[in-house]
Design brief:
This protein is mostly beta strands and 149 residues long. It has one domain: Peptide methionine sulfoxide reductase (Metal Binding Protein, Guanine Nucleotide Exchange Factor, Chain A, Beta Complex). It has two helices and ten strands, in the order ααββββββββββ. The strands form two sheets. Strands 3-4-8-7-6-5 form a six-stranded antiparallel beta sheet. β1 and β2 (54-57) form a beta hairpin. The two termini are 25 Å apart. Mean pLDDT is 75; it is low at 115-140 and 143-149.
Length: 149
């Protein structure tokens, strides 16, 4: 894993859009079915919008019916961290970027497991394509890079 990215709140505000800051740094959520990539089907790699770490492959993306991009697993377990989230009067597992600590969404036990059958699927709400080199665009925390064929 690459070195951790540590920035002050002012530095994050300078490099992220207001929506990205809200989602990544304040653990916010944008409305369902509003992100640019909730219904996106191109092949690619999804990166953290905060630090650029490659997190998810499009091969692991599936339609959860929630209006947010969802993935069955990260590209490698060490790319994400989890912690218990007891907000909203429930207990959930929050998923964070391992490099910068950006909020990526939550893991739910009702999605498909790799290879089929039930178990953990991570809801992803922050996606951005690497075709926007600034790393800012629409939803808030991840970005996708087309794979070489």
């Amino acid at each position: 894993m690459a070195d951790k990215v540590n920035k002050t709140e002012a530095q994050w505000r300078k490099t992220l859009t207001p929506e990205q800051f809200y989602v990544l740094r304040e653990r916010g959520t944008e409305r369902a079915y509003t992100g640019r990539y909730w219904d996106h089907h191109e092949r690619g790699i999804y990166r953290c919008a905060g630090c650029g770490l490659e997190l998810f492959a499009s091969a692991d993306k599936y339609d959860s019916g929630t209006g947010w991009p969802s993935f069955t697993a990260p590209m490698a377990p060490e790319k994400v961290e989890t912690r218990t989230d007891r907000s909203w009067i429930m207990r959930r597992t929050e998923v964070l970027c391992a490099r910068c600590g950006g909020h990526l969404g939550h893991v739910f036990a009702d999605g498909p497991a790799p290879g089929g059958g039930g178990a953990s699927a991570a809801r992803r709400t922050r996606i951005e394509r690497n075709s926007e080199p600034s790393g800012i665009a629409w939803s808030a925390a991840l970005s996708s890079r087309p794979r070489a064929t």
